[in-house]
Design goal:
Blueprint: E1 2-5, E2 8-11, H1 15-21, H2 24-27, H3 30-43, E3 50-51, H4 53-60, H5 70-80, E4 88-89, H6 90-109, E5 130-142, E6 147-161, E7 165-169, E8 175-180
Antiparallel strand pairs: 1-2, 3-4, 5-6, 6-7, 7-8
Helix pairs in contact: 3-4
């Protein structure tokens, strides 16, 4: 969207461009909301203060639905129409936009590995599927207080496979010990 202001031209960003620039709610301003509101109310052909599905697809297909099929746009319409009255009003639209972009923003900012170190491939003596992996924290006696305390930063991993192989791994995932357990036949 382009606007002229005197001799200076201002380019107004779409919500998707704003979302990629940082936190959506920090980047969007009154001008963006006014532009969206103008598009919203211009699309409301029957003056009902809400958009039916056809008006919604026509007005926001290019803005929100780039690369989306009609079915996907209908699904988006149903998500936005929270009171299920068959129309999307301005409040529903604003609420959806804010929540949708807040969720995307938090997902992008929250990209954190579930492990403190980068993943690495480790060879294993297991030849069958694993049936169990357990973490065993190191337990140490606290000399000052006389009780047992666990240290989560140091411990060992135990892996067991269906073929009876039991492996003990150090916290850095180097193999410490392997034991082959065999089933005994009862007499």
């Amino acid at each position: 969207m382009m606007e002229e202001s005197g001799e200076q031209k201002k380019v107004s960003k779409t919500p998707a461009q704003v979302q990629n620039a940082g936190k959506f709610e920090d980047q969007i301003n009154l001008q963006h909301l006014e532009e969206l509101m103008k598009v919203f109310y211009e699309a409301d052909e029957n003056g009902s203060d809400g958009l039916d599905i056809d008006e919604f697809k026509l007005a926001f297909g290019d803005i929100l639905g780039k690369g989306k099929s009609d079915k996907q746009m209908e699904i988006m319409f149903m998500k936005i129409d929270t009171n299920c009255d068959g129309t999307v009003d301005w409040d529903e639209f604003c609420t959806y936009m804010l929540l949708e972009y807040q969720e995307k923003d938090s997902m992008n900012r929250g990209k954190r590995l579930p492990y403190p170190h980068p993943l690495k491939m480790v060879g294993s003596p297991h030849h069958e599927l694993l049936s169990n992996i357990s973490y065993m924290p190191t337990v140490q006696l606290e000399s000052d207080h006389g009780f047992l305390a666990t240290k989560k930063e140091c411990g060992r991993y135990l892996s067991v496979s269906k073929d009876g192989t039991v492996c003990l791994w150090k916290s850095d995932l180097s193999l410490s010990r392997t034991i082959k357990v065999s089933a005994t036949t009862p007499c």
